[in-house]
Amino acid sequence: MSSSQNTHAGVTSGPVTRFLKATEIDTRLLGMIGALLLIWVGFHLFGVFFKGSGSFLTPRNLWNLSVQTASIGIMACGMVLVIVTRHIDLSVGSVLGFCAMVMGIVQARILPEFLGLGHPLIWVITALVGMALGAAIGAFHGWLVAYRGIPAFIVTLGGLLVWRGFAFLLARGETISPLDSTFSLLGGGPYGAIGATGSWIVALIACAAILWMLWNGRRTRALHDFPQRPVWAEGVLAALGCGLVIGATLLVNAYPWPKGIVRQYAAANNIELTEAGLFISHGWAIPVLILMGVGVVMTVISTRTRFGRYVFAMGGNPDAAELSGINTKWMTVKIFAVMGFLTGLSSVVASARLNSATNALGTLDELYVIAAAVIGGTSLAGGVGTIYGAIIGALVMQSLQTGMVLIGFDAALQNIVVGSVLVLAVWLDIVYRKRAK
Amino acid sequence: MTNKGTPLVEMRDISISFGGIKAVDHVTIDLYPGEVVGLLGHNGAGKSTLIKCLSGAYQMDSGEIFINGDKAEIRSPRDARSYNIETIYQTLALADNLDAASNLFLGRELVGPGGFLNDIAMEAETRKIMGRLNPNFRKFNVPVSALSGGQRQSVAIARAVYFNAKILIMDEPTAALGPHETQMVAELIAELKKQGLGIFLIEHDIHAVMELCDRAVVMKNGQRVGTVNVGDVTDDDILGMIILGKKPPQAY
């Protein structure tokens, strides 16, 4: 896409423009990252000036932020597909709560009867049940929308009430806690992170993947004699990508386990603790790795497969998609099933993080998920949206909330800010798109 | 022209109604290889509806379709494509948010190993065919919403032509075009005809019909008024059929 409109009028080939053109970086992405950094630095400086010390830009806060973003981020990836096809899913929060309750009962009451408490298969079976259940509910919603012609807004508005009600009935409103100990690792926490060495292995794989993608891109372009990016631009992209991965890994490794946990761990493993204590890194949290995995897989699905192409075609022109021989009804069922599957996965993360299943889990999540997708550039008019945008959108939403908690805004004020930011973000996006035309 | 042998397409006794209104009422038409058959009539005469039964967009209530003499079951656009029937819709049926290559291959994407889309190959093929149809076309990497009417039309035409169509349906292909592009479409129709394709052309412009078509079928109120060999009649004869439903002696 051309980026020349984004610099000052009259300057057609300034260094910034040339840089963006050569590297083919999406200017919209840059804008979102800029906004995110602004929020981060803003909250930090607010802390520095008014509270004596900034606590936002610390490894501890950013690590927690990443874990808190995971649940909404996973669902936002699915919501992109739903919104791109001009539908909406208002039921994800309730479905999340319902799946969590079912999984709570399965792992705490049913499976221990057959397998025994603490059996290593419990968490696997439970997670599979949750994801399958989510996918089935999503497929059912999709069937009502596609084959019964009920608007998605109504189907999922009904679902919002129905599934929350079922979640309550399942255990008459009781909270199920604690959950299976392996299962709860999926929600993060000191033991639910992969440590320094594991994190570096992940970082290495990620860097290798980035380099391979750049190299493969060059190779396929060369195969068809298409114009190449200049070599320096490829170098910049490689450095940026790998730099980001390495920087983030340094950050999560800089956050040590709390002293109490270290003492517990040392006692359990007969390690002699010195005066200074042990520095054990958290490293990447498991839910964050799940989110990244989902992000990569969903990006591949939405941009590199027929399924993804049809999603965008349906969003751009439903009639054209139908006339091109795409089975749009079956596609709708599949899209809602994917949304449901990711809701089930998100339910695993959310309930594992709390180490309990409550019937209120996921309340209002649908609004945050939709907001994350929309802030991330998904158009409610359909046909436009990206997975990485939605994940950054989720990060923006979570950053705002975390930041306001840190500087002591109360809940009412938080809602006002989050709501205003949503409207502002969409307005800015509309302005941007008008100018980009 | 003399049409002998098996027709490429025969639509026999087709009827379809919407909410009690007979949009198409027992209409029979046929099409031979290397022939252009014009479909004429007022707005609402049933031309587009009739032809959508062939392209799979609508399902007829009664009647039969024969392709090369064999009975064909066309229930969806996908079925129609499997009989090598391609359609250029009046609305063009393009997904505005996708680029030319994605639209050209929509529903029939080229995939590489692992079932992943081979976008580069699709773009290369698109460049090839656009180079033939519309050499001035340059906007390969932008959504088709950014294209002019003529450019969009050429994408729609390229899509129909690329996949070795045997039967081509064109619904007012020149309605949105300037004189230069209209001429281009006329040349293309002549060339495709030479290659042995059968073309149904829905057209309002009588002069275009006289120039491009071999035969013309006139419809009025869902019924077929008559079919004429374009060489045997005058503009006024056809106009009389369209406006008054009056069948000249040459018609059958």
TrEMBL record, chain A:
<feature type="transmembrane region" description="Helical">
    <location>
        <begin position="276"/>
        <end position="301"/>
    </location>
</feature>
<keyword id="KW-1003">Cell membrane</keyword>
<keyword id="KW-0997">Cell inner membrane</keyword>
<keyword id="KW-0762">Sugar transport</keyword>
<feature type="transmembrane region" description="Helical">
    <location>
        <begin position="335"/>
        <end position="355"/>
    </location>
</feature>
<feature type="transmembrane region" description="Helical">
    <location>
        <begin position="120"/>
        <end position="144"/>
    </location>
</feature>
<feature type="transmembrane region" description="Helical">
    <location>
        <begin position="150"/>
        <end position="171"/>
    </location>
</feature>
<dbReference type="GO" id="GO:0022857">
    <property type="term" value="F:transmembrane transporter activity"/>
</dbReference>
<keyword id="KW-0813">Transport</keyword>
<keyword id="KW-0472">Membrane</keyword>
<keyword id="KW-0812">Transmembrane</keyword>
<feature type="transmembrane region" description="Helical">
    <location>
        <begin position="191"/>
        <end position="215"/>
    </location>
</feature>
<feature type="transmembrane region" description="Helical">
    <location>
        <begin position="411"/>
        <end position="432"/>
    </location>
</feature>
<feature type="transmembrane region" description="Helical">
    <location>
        <begin position="90"/>
        <end position="108"/>
    </location>
</feature>
<dbReference type="InterPro" id="IPR001851">
    <property type="entry name" value="ABC_transp_permease"/>
</dbReference>
<protein>
    <recommendedName>
        <fullName>Xylose transport system permease protein XylH</fullName>
    </recommendedName>
</protein>
<feature type="transmembrane region" description="Helical">
    <location>
        <begin position="62"/>
        <end position="84"/>
    </location>
</feature>
<dbReference type="GO" id="GO:0005886">
    <property type="term" value="C:plasma membrane"/>
</dbReference>
<dbReference type="Pfam" id="PF02653">
    <property type="entry name" value="BPD_transp_2"/>
</dbReference>
<feature type="transmembrane region" description="Helical">
    <location>
        <begin position="29"/>
        <end position="50"/>
    </location>
</feature>
<feature type="transmembrane region" description="Helical">
    <location>
        <begin position="235"/>
        <end position="255"/>
    </location>
</feature>
<feature type="transmembrane region" description="Helical">
    <location>
        <begin position="367"/>
        <end position="391"/>
    </location>
</feature>
From TrEMBL, chain B:
<keyword id="KW-0472">Membrane</keyword>
<keyword id="KW-0677">Repeat</keyword>
<dbReference type="InterPro" id="IPR003593">
    <property type="entry name" value="AAA+_ATPase"/>
</dbReference>
<dbReference type="GO" id="GO:0005524">
    <property type="term" value="F:ATP binding"/>
</dbReference>
<keyword id="KW-0813">Transport</keyword>
<dbReference type="GO" id="GO:0005886">
    <property type="term" value="C:plasma membrane"/>
</dbReference>
<feature type="domain" description="ABC transporter">
    <location>
        <begin position="9"/>
        <end position="246"/>
    </location>
</feature>
<keyword id="KW-0762">Sugar transport</keyword>
<keyword id="KW-1003">Cell membrane</keyword>
<keyword id="KW-0067">ATP-binding</keyword>
<keyword id="KW-0547">Nucleotide-binding</keyword>
<keyword id="KW-1278">Translocase</keyword>
<protein>
    <submittedName>
        <fullName>Sugar ABC transporter ATP-binding protein</fullName>
    </submittedName>
</protein>
<dbReference type="GO" id="GO:0016887">
    <property type="term" value="F:ATP hydrolysis activity"/>
</dbReference>
<dbReference type="InterPro" id="IPR027417">
    <property type="entry name" value="P-loop_NTPase"/>
</dbReference>
<dbReference type="Pfam" id="PF00005">
    <property type="entry name" value="ABC_tran"/>
</dbReference>
<dbReference type="InterPro" id="IPR003439">
    <property type="entry name" value="ABC_transporter-like_ATP-bd"/>
</dbReference>
<dbReference type="InterPro" id="IPR050107">
    <property type="entry name" value="ABC_carbohydrate_import_ATPase"/>
</dbReference>
